[in-house]
Amino acid sequence: MSKSAEHREQIWEQARKTIAQAERSLASSRDLTPEQEQAELRRRAKNLARKPHETRSGEQIEVVTFLLAREHYAIESHYVREVHIMRRFTPLPYTPTFVLGVTSIHGRIVSVLDLREFFGLPRQGMTELNKLLVLQAGQMSFGVLADDVTGSRHPALADLQESVHTITDARESYVRGITSDRLIVLDGQRLITDRRIVVSDKPYSEQEI
After folding, report:
1. Where do the DSSP E strands lie in the chain?
2. Which residues of 21-44 are buried (b: 16+ CB within 10 A; e: fewer)?
3. In the beta sheet, which residues pair with residue 89?
4. DSSP 63-122
5. What CA–CA distance (Å, rounded) separates 147 from 135?
6. Cα angle 97, 183, 162; round to 5
7. What is the pLDDT of residues 33-83, one digit of tens each?
8. What is the pTM of this model?
């Protein structure tokens, strides 16, 4: 086995261990109290939100994976600041339908976006939609809701299909590529810098979710 092949195998072995650990953490969190679950999500987010892994040839990226509307999505981990359980938010008037409102995280106001509305996805069946991924690039920061945060992966760039023939809706310009096992990798930079998601500060009242 060549050194490069051996190096790639070591990377994939580490990725499999990371995913397995995330799955064990998710399974064990089912019996936690709300406070313990919140602490577990913060711990998991700290582990996930690292700078992307780079190989010598730059062939792979590290992504955080999540479930939304029965589909599997991912975004590069260096855009994910933290993960929370979404328990309440405050609606804002005069905002697009995909902006649910704002919430307070560690005393900081963060806008909350529903990617189903943003991408125009059909609402299929019951979903939890109570996990909040806080994304950040530079001074821009906001949260997106997901049904679950499922772990991390290191997909090969060569595995990403650049021509996304199966996605022709509003998501198309925000998708970096799709892996062979149907993981939709979002373009984090394009999503975070989209001017449509900038939320103005307006008076509001608190509401439970």
Report:
1. 63-68, 71-76, 80-85, 88-89, 99-105, 108-113, 131-137, 140-146, 148-153, 175-178, 184-186, 207-208
2. ebeeebeebeeeeeeeebebbeeb
3. 207
4. EEEEEETTEEEEEEGGGEEEEEE--EEB--TTS-TTEEEEEEETTEEEEEE-HHHHHT--
5. 16
6. 90
7. 666 666 666 666 555 544 444 444 458 899 999 999 889 999 999 999 999
8. 0.66
